[in-house]
Design brief:
By secondary structure, this protein is an alpha+beta fold. Helix content is 27%, strand content 28%. The strands form 4 sheets. It has a 5-stranded antiparallel sheet.
Length: 236
Amino acid sequence: MRVAGQLAGRTLQAVAKAVEPGITTKELDRVAEEFIRKNGGKPTFIGYRGYPASLCVSINDEVVHGIPGPRKLKAGDVVSVDVAATIGGFVGDTATTVIVPPAAAAAQKLVRVTEQSLLAAIDCMKPGNRLGDIGSAVQNAAESNGFGVVRDFVGHGIGRRMHEEPAVANYGTPGTGLRLEPGLVLAIEPMVTLGDWHVRVLQDGWTVVTEDGSLAAHFEHTIAITENGPEVLTQV
């Protein structure tokens, strides 16, 4: 899992560095696929439930699952990138959100708070705590800043398959849900909006957008719970 996590994390780092005005989302997808294959892995997303690409690239009001294509990035775009890599029979899954300069103040705050909500969740991932503690940490970090937390899509267990039990909501009640034990590996992925939390899926069957057209941000890490606390496997 460490090897898979590092490959996913390094791939995401390469893609984030490639984000610039004028590049297409398909070109970003090519960066990801080539990096993963060059390093001995397989892009997990390709063919997953029919998904056609190595990356999900979601822009502005798109929350997650945006399909790469001919769209060119432009100044001010809020770009969420999600990638998973399989190597040695295990999967690493990670995401980040970057802004094509110049960045509006509201967009900067949204991205900063979304990342902070992920870090708050990771801090809760100690043996003996519960899933509700994770969701509550994300929810409190986001909503205390006036942002919405998407309910319809969640984090997940991860291992030999990308999506395993349990589902990990980004909202919840402390002290409730599954007890966290060493050996459990979770993909935690806050999806936070500048406005209301309601979302819908576009006609392509994949792209998730905010109902009110507000900006969205998405961060994700694959984290192992150990006896000594959380280990972020996708951190590079």
